[in-house]
Amino acid sequence: MKLYYAPGACSLSPHIVARELGINVELKKVNNKEKKVEDGADFWQVNGKGYVPVLELDSGERLTEGPAIVQYLADQKPESGLAPKNGTMERYRLQEWLNFLTSEIHKQFSPLFRPTTPEEYKTIAKENLAKRFDWLNQQLAGKDYLTGKQFTVADAYLFVLSNWTRPMQIDLAKWPNLQAFQKRVAARPKVKEAMQAEGLLPKEQPAT
Ligand SMILES: N[C@@H](CCC(=O)N[C@@H](CS)C(=O)NCC(=O)O)C(=O)O
């Protein structure tokens, strides 16, 4: 399978998920500004919506939308626990989180990255994010991950979104449970690997 990604973008979530599952995906780096794939291909031809992530299956079929992609990946290895079994209440809870993250967090961040967004709107988006972080901080009290002890695909997504607070100069220290969650996920070996592969962290040198 191939994963079209842009370093540090929301595509890092399926990238982490693939590594956590031990599924090998060929990474295809996309220049999101120029809509070009690293091999020179026109990204519009890959995804008519013009955004990452895109998962290309071995059949050539392409799947878009991060929350759908991570569930597809997790369902390839149901024993991993990265997504509870389809049809169970636990699965709907996971989908509840994924939808919250995509609509209430991810899409509040998006305009902050656009240079053309008016400052007044950025202030409102940051206020909205702060409200959602208050909720997340409450929900993470006494928990390692969003659904409890088990790391799931929703945690990979939240981790990536929480990383965006740094370039946006939002201080996560205001939400200590969320900050602790971010550090917990960052310490996972597969998460480090994914970040290194995207050039977001220096590669670890082998001990000599
Ligand atoms: N609804 C999509 C949104 C994906 C998205 O916002 N991708 C961003 C990176 S995080 C992107 O590629 N943006 C490029 C653009 O809008 O030009 C999903 O959840 O996968």
Model description:
The protein is an alpha+beta fold. Helix content is 49%, strand content 9%. It is built from eight helices and five strands; from the N terminus they run βαββαββαααααα. A five-stranded mixed beta sheet has the order 3-2-1-4-5. Strand 2 (26-31) and strand 3 form a beta hairpin. Helix 1 crosses helix 8 (189-197), helix 4 packs antiparallel against helix 5 and helix 4 runs parallel beside helix 6 (153-163). The longest helix has 25 residues, at 89-113. Residues 6, 9-10, 32, 50-53, 65-66, 102, 110 line the site of glutathione. Glutathione (GSH) binds next to helix 4.
Which features does this protein show?
208 residues, alpha+beta, 5-stranded mixed β-sheet, 8 helices, globular, binds glutathione
SSE topology sketch:
Layout: E1 2-5, H1 12-21, E2 26-31, E3 36-37, H2 43-46, E4 54-56, E5 62-64, H3 66-76, H4 89-113, H5 119-139, H6 153-163, H7 176-186, H8 189-197
Parallel strand pairs: 1-2
Antiparallel strand pairs: 1-4, 2-3, 4-5
Helix pairs in contact: 1-3, 1-6, 1-8, 4-5, 4-6, 6-7
The chain binds glutathione.
Glutathione binds at residues 6, 9-10, 32, 50-53, 65-66, 102, 110.
